[in-house]
Specification:
Length: 257
C-alpha cells in the first residue's frame, strides 16, 4: 500500500492560512546618518528645550550607531505616516526597539521612546511609551499608555512585571508592544511581560515616533533598531474554514488510496 505524504500539503496550507501581511512604517538602525546634522534632518530635535538625543558610536546593537538619550532633557521626533485605526480589526501594530540600560543597579531613571498619535498627544490612546521612568521604584522595565492604567494609576508608567518577565540588567534589551483593538501585549527580550486591556480607550491612528524623554535623567541610555509595522492577521473564521477544507481534502485522499 502506498504511503500518503500528507505533511507537505498540510504544512503548505497551514502556512498560507496563518501567514500575515505586514506594512512597515519605520525600520531605523541610525547607521545611515553621516553626522548629527543629518540625523536631525530626519529626526527633529525637541523644541522645548531645543535639544535632541545624540547620534553615538559608544553603544550600538546593529551595527555601529545609536541614539543616545542624555542626562539633560533630550528628545527627537519623526513622523511615520498614518498607521490607521484598529476598530473591529484583528490587526496588530507592533512597536519595538532595542534599549541600552546603562546602569541597572541605579534607581529607575527617565529614558524611554514613544509611539504617538500626533506630535502633542493629550488624550487617551494617543501615547504608548516603553523604557524607564522614575515615578515608581522598580527592578523591571516599564511602559505607559496615555489614559490607561497598568497598575500604577491612569496614564502613569507601570512595571512590566508579569510572570517570568526579565528584570533589569545593564546592557541591551528588546522592548516590544503589540497593540491591538482591545489590548496591548508587552514583551521584554521576547518574553511576554504584561497584557493591558485598552477596550475603554478611543482608537487612534498612530503616526509619530519619539526617542528620548525630553526630561532630565540620572543616567544616559541608548536606543537602536526602532521598528513599527502593522500586521494584518486572518480572521479566525477564515482560518477555521480553510482548516476544515484541509481536513476534507486529506480524508478524500485517504479513501481514494
Amino acid at each position: 500500500m502506498k504511503r500518503i505524504r500528507l505533511l507537505p500539503l498540510a504544512a503548505a496550507l497551514s502556512m498560507a492560512v496563518l501567514s500575515t501581511q505586514a506594512a512597515v512604517f519605520l525600520d531605523e538602525n541610525f547607521d545611515t546618518y553621516a553626522n548629527q546634522a543629518a540625523f536631525e534632518s530626519v529626526w527633529a530635535p525637541s523644541a522645548t528645550p531645543a535639544t535632541g538625543t545624540t547620534l553615538s558610536t559608544e553603544q550600538a546593537m546593529s551595527p555601529f550607531q545609536s541614539a543616545k538619550g542624555l542626562t539633560t532633557a533630550s528628545r527627537n521626533t519623526r513622523g511615520i505616516g498614518e498607521i490607521g485605526f484598529l476598530n473591529a480589526s484583528t490587526d496588530a501594530v507592533v512597536f519595538r526597539f532595542n534599549f541600552y540600560d546603562s546602569n541597572s543597579g541605579a534607581a529607575a531613571y527617565r529614558q524611554y521612546a514613544e509611539l504617538d498619535d500626533t506630535a502633542a498627544p493629550s488624550a487617551g490612546g494617543q501615547l504608548f511609551a516603553m523604557g524607564l521612568n522614575n515615578n515608581i521604584a522598580s527592578t523591571y522595565y516599564m511602559a505607559r499608555i496615555l489614559g490607561g492604567d497598568g497598575g500604577s494609576g491612569v496614564s502613569a508608567f507601570f512595571k512590566l512585571d508579569g510572570t517570568g518577565a526579565p528584570v533589569r540588567s545593564t546592557g541591551w534589551h528588546t522592548l516590544e508592544a503589540d497593540i491591538m483593538d482591545t489590548s496591548v501585549s508587552y514583551y521584554v527580550d521576547g518574553i511576554l511581560s504584561k497584557t493591558i486591556d485598552i477596550t475603554a480607550l478611543t482608537d487612534r491612528s498612530l503616526d509619530t515616533v519619539k526617542v528620548g524623554s525630553n526630561l532630565s535623567s540620572a543616567q544616559v541610555a541608548y536606543f537602536d533598531d526602532i521598528h513599527v509595522e502593522r500586521l494584518t492577521v486572518p480572521e479566525p473564521s477564515a482560518v477555521s474554514m480553510v482548516v476544515l477544507g484541509l481536513g476534507v481534502i486529506l480524508m478524500n485522499r485517504r479513501f481514494r488510496k
